[in-house]
Amino acid sequence: MKIKLNLFGKKWDFWRELAAVIFPVSFITFLALFAVDYVFPGFVSNWFNPVWLLIIAAVCVIIQQDKFSAR
Amino acid sequence: MEKKFLKIIKAVLIVAALGLVLWLANLNFPRSGQIVIQAQLGKDSRAITRLGPDVRLKLENGRPAVLENPVYFDLRALPWFIRARVYLVYQEDGRQLEGLGGQTGPGWQYEVKKPMAQADLQDGFKQAIFDFDLTKLYSQKNVKRFLIATSQAPGGELKIKELKIILSR
Q: CB–CB of B142 and A32 under 8 A?
């Protein structure tokens, strides 16, 4: 039997939708910055660690998982 | 209501992502044509590493002191920066500064230069300025290695207070 988490009741679906909005922006930005830093090492990583964007994208994917659904 | 809020959030995120890209472009293509990189002595920073190897150095109040010759640091500079002016603030305590070298080829190939200018500072430290043509230095993934050469004689130390590099196009 699958136990569904329902920590915030109906509000939880809002967080899933928010995660769905944040994911593509953070992931595409990560890919773009990673590609630039691969071609010109240091262009991005001398100033900012793009892996933070990947972590944000990964958290968004986890939040979007069905087991966290309130429905 | 939530849909509208999510659309606003999406717009804000896209603007933030574009702002991040513009901020990085501005840092790497500065209008002045040069960027200043200040070493955080004793620890690695993104563009410049700490001095090494550790066995040839000791840390005093977060400042390194060279005990043995030579010591190295790496600089990660983008290829459109072709000149590097290195400012080294140091104090000779029984160990003299011989020069600063840039790696010109794989392995042990360094061109050690004497300072182009030297000045005595008020606090007992000296400042030496070196100029390098980065196009002549050996580079691996934009990383260039430099060597601080001190006197070969054992004993004594060379205290380093500041290491600053101005990169210019």
A: no
Do B47 and B114 have their domain in common?
A: yes
Domain holding B18, by residue range, is: 1-31
Q: Is A43 on the interface with B (CB under 8 A)?
A: yes
DSSP state of B52: B
Q: Is residue A27 part of a domain?
A: yes
pLDDT greater than 90 at residue A17: no
Chain B residues near residue A32 by CB distance under 8 angstroms:
21
Choose among A25, A32, A40: nearest Cβ to B78: A40
Is A61 among the domain residues? yes
Q: What is the pLDDT of residues B104-156, one digit of tens each?
A: 999 889 999 999 998 988 888 999 999 999 999 999 888 999 999 988 777 78
DSSP string of A15-56? HHHHHHHHHHHHHHHHHHHHHHHHHSTTTTTTT--THHHHHH
Stated pTM of the model: 0.80
- Which residues have C-beta within 8 Å of that of residue B7, sequence separation ≥ 6? none
Same domain, residue pair B37 and B100: yes
Distance from CA of B122 to the nearest CA of A (A): 33
Per the domain annotation, does A50 fall within a domain?
Answer: yes
B49 and B23, same domain (yes or no): no
Contact A22 B13 (CB under 8 A): yes
A21 occurs within a structural domain: yes
ipTM for the predicted complex: 0.78
Rounded to an integer, the average pLDDT of A27-43 is 94
Number of domains comprising chain B: 2
Closest CA to B148 of B124, B122, B119, B128: B128
